[in-house]
Amino acid sequence: MVDVFEQVEEELRSDRYKRLARTWLPVAAVVVIVALIGALGWWGWDSYQSNRAAKGAEAYDRGLEALRESKPADARAAFQEAVEQGNGAYKALALQQQAAQALDANKVPDAVRLFDESAKATRDPILSDTASLKAAWLLMDTAPLAELESRLTPLAEDDRPLHAFAQHALALARLQHGKAAEARSALVVLQLGQDVPDAIRQQAQAAIAMIDSGTVAALPKIVDAAKAAPPPAAPQVAPASQAASPASAPAPAAAPTQQ
């Protein structure tokens, strides 16, 4: 009698396991397939980005070499190839080089456009903020204050990598447009700041002295000196043969001088 009960119980367990299997095995299969597709998709995307980084690095290096050899046409072609084939970092850097070439040809509007495109091409805050800051400096003498403020205010936030440079540029823009009190307050903060580069601190002191003495005629010289001060260098790039990701990025071009 005990054997009969055990056999019945075993058959019931077997039926229960079969029902569970019919219910959950399709679900498990779908989960496995989705995970496999996701893994393959991520691998494909990573390979694609690595390939773009390598192509961008190679083209960018050829552009720099062409510049060193005084071959501007070859440099433009190489930088354009980096823009079209490179990943975000190398595309941004190549656009900045194209902007510098536009400045050499005295094509300021083209340079501003290329710097703006460079800022949008990468998520690296050092590269993007450097490009945005250069564009703002190029517009310093011609753009209305509202446009300069819209460009510089986000860059001047304390958590941005070039905030001291942007705060200085914003103060000088306001000073040029007659807002001396606002400009002086910002310049005093820069003068006393702990993490302010020496060049910016000295220019802030000069601007404060100019405001206090009423020597408005000295403002253009201060603006020109500020435009010539380069931002901090970005991390150096690995050789093109080693480039595999946008994490490596060469230092951006020096800040533009007055045209």
From TrEMBL:
Skewed-composition ranges (Low complexity): 235-259
Domain called Ancillary SecYEG translocon subunit/Cell division coordinator CpoB TPR: residue spans: 27-148
Segments crossing the lipid bilayer: 23-45
Region (Disordered): 228-259
Cited InterPro entries: SecYEG/CpoB_TPR
Pfam families listed in its UniProt record: TPR_21
Listed name of the protein: Tetratricopeptide repeat protein
Native organism: Brevundimonas albigilva
